[in-house]
Amino acid sequence: MTRKTIGLSDIWYFIAAYALLCACQFLVLFIPFRWYIRLFKDHGKNNDEKITAAKTLIVRKALLRGLHYLPWKGKCLVQALTAKTLLKMVHLPGTIYLGIAKEDNLLKAHAWLKSGNQFICGQDGYRKYTIVQEIS
């Protein structure tokens, strides 16, 4: 059994993801949605970087590593906001989708993030939700 080596950039992205997960959790808990959602919009900035599987994998791995070490469960909105910021760090565009679904007379909400046609987070069960807002 061989053990993969983790590079310095992987460690840096993990630390960034962990810190961003904590910051985004704080935003979701204590700041009204309409205030913090403006921070995550790409205000007309054009990312000319080509979306590649390698770059999106960097973000996805860092997010999953950060989630693994959190002392609480990172909800889908926190994950999407964190991943959106990580995508900006590697100069890639991303769109956060916010959806709702009615299940057993209860409204359920879900958030997921895509960069191009590649999912970064929240792809599990996204099809049963109706998109109510896109943040790109």
**Mean pLDDT across residues:** 91
Strand count, sense and closure of the main sheet?
A: 4 strands, antiparallel
Q: Provide the helix percentage.
A: 40-55%
Count of extended strands:
4
| Uncertain segments | none
Blueprint (SSEs and pairs):
Elements: H1 8-30, H2 33-36, H3 53-69, H4 76-89, E1 95-103, E2 106-115, E3 118-121, E4 130-135
Antiparallel strand pairs: 1-2, 1-4, 2-3
Helix pairs in contact: 1-3, 1-4, 3-4
Describe this structure in words.
This protein is of the alpha+beta class and 136 residues long. The protein has one domain (8-135). Helices cover 43% and strands 21% of the residues. It contains 4 helices and 4 strands. It has helices at residues 8-30, 33-36, 53-69, 76-89; strands at 95-103, 106-115, 118-121, 130-135. A 4-stranded antiparallel sheet has the order 3-2-1-4. Helix 1 (8-30) packs across helix 3 (53-69) and helix 3 crosses helix 4. The longest helix has 23 residues, at 8-30. The N and C termini lie far apart (42 Å). The mean pLDDT is 91.
